[in-house]
Amino acid sequence: MFDAPFWRSVPLAATLLLGGCSTLDYYSHLAGGHLHLLQAREPIAELLQNPATDPELKQRLALAQQARDFASAQLGLPNNSSYRLYADIQRPFVVWNVFATPEFSLAPELHCFPIAGCVAYRGFYSQGRARGAAALLKQQGLDTYVGGVEAYSTLGWFDDPILNTMLRWSDERLVAVIFHELAHQQLYVADDTAFNESFASFVEREGLRQWRAEQGLQPDDPQGEQQREQFIGLVLASRARLQQLYDSELPAPQMRSGKQAEFERLRAEYDALSKREWGGSGRYDGWINAPINNAKLLPFGLYDQWVPAFAALFEQVERDWPRFYQRVAALGDLPVVERQQALTDLSPGS
Fold first, then answer.
1. Entry pTM
2. What SS3 class is residue 217?
3. DSSP per position, 68-123
């Protein structure tokens, strides 16, 4: 995946369990892809003891096991065999997600499954199949976007492995992904992608902060983290303006013109920011200069929307992980409207 702050993982394989797919062909594709992944797994403990294992791979896997132990011992995350296995699946991403929205809406096209519930994307183990699915949706007049994903969670139904796709990143990001994935196993609420991803993102960020403190580490790239937050802020502001435009009920030609004008404004604001504070270039140049549409903006709202609310809740329970998980589970049990209102009330400045 390009260096962007959008998403790192998806709860995908739970959709396999009851075959809740729109076509038998898609179900067969998911089942075959996940079976291949399961067959590629090897115990990390054996790889670490094997003198034939590449030394660099050993170093990364040893770090992953340190983080895995920390996740259960210090963050209260599930203590099971997930991320104590390794699988080299011989490709850069484990799945490719297809996002889609109407032309004048930021609401995602939902895909519903018996266990995972409704999610805002559809995953494919093949980039070609993902692009084909996006092309069909585009023919229906939808905005579409395809993005590669480095890891996913089966929500505890299988022993999820560390993947070769996860080892392409820095040590810090590898640790963060493990925390994020285990958070999905800790708690998952059907039909609420923003809730699930914001929860996992908060656990990832707070867990990483505690990991750094215990290891005596500084952030790998503090400047990069600042740029990430600034970039997300630009995109979320653009989303808010687009929402106002789509709520205006203007004629379609005016709406279309306003939409493109907003994307140009986003590019101009990014260019000004990068010249003013980033020395004239930034890690998101490729993203901003490629085509932009509604679907490409979706992951921002999904992964960050409720993070401040969860951070406030964590402080309310005096930074106690078991109490935090109990409170989050209680939020998850609420009807969706009440849940969103409770999260809104928790958010700073509400």
1. 0.84
2. coil
3. HHHHHHHH----SSTTSEEE--SSS-SEEEEEEE-TT--PPPPEEETTTEEES-EE
Would you call 264 exposed, middle or buried from its count of C-beta atoms within 10 A (0-12, 13-18, 19+)?
Answer: exposed
What single-letter amino acid sits at 114?
A: P
**Residue owning tokens 């797994």:** 41
Residue 175 lies in a domain: yes
Residues with pLDDT less than 50, the chain: 1-7, 10, 13-21
CB atoms within 10 A of CB 146: 20
Give 140's DSSP letter.
Answer: T
Residue with tokens 């996913």: 152
312 and 176 in a common domain: no
Which DSSP string do the residues of 49-71 spell out, in sequence order?
H-TTS-HHHHHHHHHHHHHHHHH
Q: Is 162 helix (H, G, I), strand (E, B) or coil?
A: strand
Give the end of a domain, one of 189, 217, 244. Answer: 189
Which of 173, 189, 205 is the endpoint of a domain? 189
CB atoms within 10 A of CB 6: 22
144 part of a folded domain? yes
Q: Encode pLDDT of 131-156 as tens digits.
A: 999 999 999 999 999 999 888 788 88
- Reading the block at residue 217, the tokens are 């580490």
Tell me which residue range forms the domain holding 326: 307-346
Q: Nearest-CA neighbor of 226 among 9, 6, 8, 5?
A: 5
Number of domains in the chain: 2
